[in-house]
Amino acid sequence: MNHLDLKEAITKGETSLGIELGSTRIKVVLIDRQFETIASGSYEWENLLKDGYWTYNQEDIITGLQTAYREMKQQVEQNFGVTLQTVGSIGFSAMMHGYMAFDNKGELLVPFRTWRNATTGAAARELTDLFQFNIPERWSIAHLYQAILNQEEHLPRIDFVTTLAGYIHWLLTGHKVIGIGDASGIFPIDEATHDYHPAMVKQFDERIAAKGYPWKLEDLLPKVYLSGEQAGELTEAGAKLLDPARDLQSGIPLCAPEGDAGTGMVATNSVKKRTGNISVGTSVFAMIVLEKELAKVYPEIDMVTTPDGSPVGMVHANNCSSDLNAWIGLFREFSETMGFNVDSGELFSKLLNKALEADPDGGGLLSYGYLSGENITGIDKGRPLFVRSPESNFNLANFMRTHLFTAFGALKLGMDILTENEKVAIDSILAHGGLFKTPVVGQKMLAAALNVPISVMSTAGEGGAWGMALLASYLINKDQDQSLEHFLGEKVFKDVEGQEITPDATDVSGFEAFIQRYQAGLAIEQAAVYHMLENGRG
């Protein structure tokens, strides 16, 4: 579309808005009917460890939402001379899982407990045994049940439990709803009914009946919606909250709120069976759309769904790029101390590319980027760790390769269960996330780790907010009865090109040597947890 056509589309509201609250950034993306980004805005934020829980301040949620929206709106004004007053549709997404519990006045009862917390181990184990279905520590139901085990004071007052995306949608529409993908991180989903599994809901209520709480589980949970279904409209209060300048009109239709796993699948056209995608950021997770149920329950594999309800095997590692980013920050500090002002993008690119010069196995070095506990390897607290022996080949190239390898270490262990134990067939895997802004390197390391071809689309940098905007667009622009799979394949990604990198045999054997060292060294990591207290003193 040319400039005048875009200006007219903006004025008429022939657009869709996607907003995603990620772990390090809130991003807003406005797209046209050709799914191209018109304008965007963002807000950087960080979780904090408060009273033993990883959380975000409730005030920061609203401030970040408004700041990112305002930045996008200003971009529209600067580029098109138009004050944004309406859009065709809106969708919200956020990091999946976690726990937000509210009373009947809408007050948050305890600070938001994010996916990053590894505080629900006992609850996850008990519920997994009860349901004979894997309940990960991150899931909302695990947080709720752990609060019950802990006999927390807020429990009798609970009126509503939801995720971060569900909370934002509720604020802006008044509707307590959730997309099925995000719902599958709250409580197990029945594939036949596309709703919470009724037998398991009953089992949960029976398990806690003696506690005498004045609620049943189904009374607390948001209503489940599929992609393509309208899940409310923007209220006047919601429009004012999102745009305090009061230019945005109410009445805009909203699709169901989704989790970042679902938007990642949409943004990479990975919602059909035998496809998969890997999202790389603070955490890393692989989503493989399954042809059939797994043969047994695995604590390392989450069973979730696509936004249109297909079963997905999810391997979620709590830690990925945070420690790598911290080391690159140290190199930036060094360069500034030496009087060099290095562009951040150039610094990342040069350091990551050094990994291509390294020994195949990283020179005998070992690292664990565990800023938080890691469920796949059974580590319950974060202790970033770098280890080497006197014989290790300690140079910059090996240092960088080791930190890239370890970013995918826990993911590799979980993926092996799907590909080796369950013989899951995967036709394609697409990767996305900031790490892939530097061409080739991250893709090549990931291909070595999983020993499968890895593709990165030209749209990979658009991220989850763009994926959420696509779900919002699907709500109003799909053909009658058109499935999400066909909408994406026939309309959105029809002419999108991708770059595929196949595994290099030398890199694969190098990663295998590294992962053996990684598994053997977990005892070192566990010792660090045991001997190094929270304040860094033993």
Automatic annotation (TrEMBL):
<dbReference type="InterPro" id="IPR018485">
    <property type="entry name" value="FGGY_C"/>
</dbReference>
<keyword id="KW-0808">Transferase</keyword>
<feature type="domain" description="Carbohydrate kinase FGGY N-terminal">
    <location>
        <begin position="17"/>
        <end position="242"/>
    </location>
</feature>
<keyword id="KW-0418">Kinase</keyword>
<dbReference type="InterPro" id="IPR043129">
    <property type="entry name" value="ATPase_NBD"/>
</dbReference>
<protein>
    <submittedName>
        <fullName>ATPase</fullName>
    </submittedName>
</protein>
<comment type="similarity">
    <text>Belongs to the FGGY kinase family.</text>
</comment>
<dbReference type="InterPro" id="IPR050406">
    <property type="entry name" value="FGGY_Carb_Kinase"/>
</dbReference>
<feature type="domain" description="Carbohydrate kinase FGGY C-terminal">
    <location>
        <begin position="277"/>
        <end position="474"/>
    </location>
</feature>
<dbReference type="Pfam" id="PF00370">
    <property type="entry name" value="FGGY_N"/>
</dbReference>
<dbReference type="Pfam" id="PF02782">
    <property type="entry name" value="FGGY_C"/>
</dbReference>
<dbReference type="GO" id="GO:0005975">
    <property type="term" value="P:carbohydrate metabolic process"/>
</dbReference>
<dbReference type="InterPro" id="IPR018484">
    <property type="entry name" value="FGGY_N"/>
</dbReference>
<dbReference type="GO" id="GO:0016301">
    <property type="term" value="F:kinase activity"/>
</dbReference>
